[in-house]
Amino acid sequence: MLLLLFLTSTVFSGTNADISFPLDPNDDENVKYWEFGGKALVLDKYVDLLPPLQFVKSYAWTNIEISLQKWSVFYEMNIMRGNYGGGFAFWFINKYGANGDLHGGPSNFNGVGVLFSIKEKNSTNQNLNHKQNNEKNVNNNYDDRTGFFEIHILQSSGKDNFKLTTLPNPDKTVSFNFSRFQRILIDFSPLGIQLYLNDELLVQKKLEANIANCYIGATASNYQRVSHLVLSKVKFNIDETYPAEIFRKHNKKINKKEYSSKFKPTYSLRLRNPSFNLTSQELVKREAIFEQINTKSITEVIGNMPNNGTFDDLLDIADECNFASNDMASFSYVNRFISDKLINYSLKWQKRTLKIVDRIQTARNVTGTAWKLLNDVMNTFNTTITQTIDKSNIKIFDLKEILSEMGEKGIDEDGQLQNIVENVSEKKYWKLIQYCMIIETILVIVFFIAHYFDVFSHDY
Fold it and tell me: Which residue in 53, 47, 134, 48 sits closest to 86, CA to CA?
């Protein structure tokens, strides 16, 4: 019973993988049980999941393995203004950190993938011609802030190899507004997979793939056309009425060398500016014509050329060239991109730089103080040693002079003391002194004798 309670509590602790803001990410870009990488940038108030750059990708994977009969995951995202391109996907597959060209996710997988492709208009008419452009300027009902999602729910057992260019028809095509946050709910239940967008049920499919012991992830990528994706919330909901298996935690990590943030397209672009849409298509047609010339005659190729071009197509191409040349001439788009987009990516590095500078300054202050104290001690020690050495030198010098003088003269080696004695003894006054001393001695003796007899006579 205790073991069952422990396992159940472990399962329901899975809501700890929810992401809410503000965040306090650690240095390796991990947030709770999530790992972000590629071009994703974790900020204090949201996760910048994908920047508006061409041919880049990013990922967000959780290192928690979920195995429940009924559960759901909720994502809140904001698709900021780009030029209607790129896409993102949510993965429930058996391989943690899988990546590829399918909106940043793998083309071959075992599990479920939910793909959102961002389009400018409905896939049946993606290009605005010159006439529609003119109507857009006068028609107030046209919402320039609206894009379209092409939604695919792919299920595979690992035998399929999907490509964006050969995907089946979308399960749903729905419009969205750039000014609103997109609330995406994916629910797994015995009824199958249910996909909700902004509280509206869009797709419901039978669950055919095995998602037991799956991993949860989200990927995003940009191609020639780009979008800017922001992730603001992730929340799990577990239905306690259904029995749950063990909610296991794994410490599996992505080998970041294998997951590159740089997307390598399968085709090369002569004109990378997204404004060149129809122009790029015309270049492809032109190359196909030149390839036919190598095998057929020019007359036959010209005779078989489709004559479906219109004056509006010509004006559309002229408009594209005009927009592209204006961007090149004024750099206005580049300036807006730097001021509106890149500043978000510089904020985090600026904060880290300020922290590093502050810590370096503190370390320099501590080191400077330590060096100053050490310098004072060394100066005092140096002064003391110098004075001691000077005094020792003076004493040694004096002693050296004395010893040198004694060494030069010796101990009366030249007989100077004897000469002094002889010189004194030869002097006449020395003999006089001797005579005076003898007479004084005799007088003292006589005095004492006379005094003795005088005393003796008075007594008797």
Answer: 53
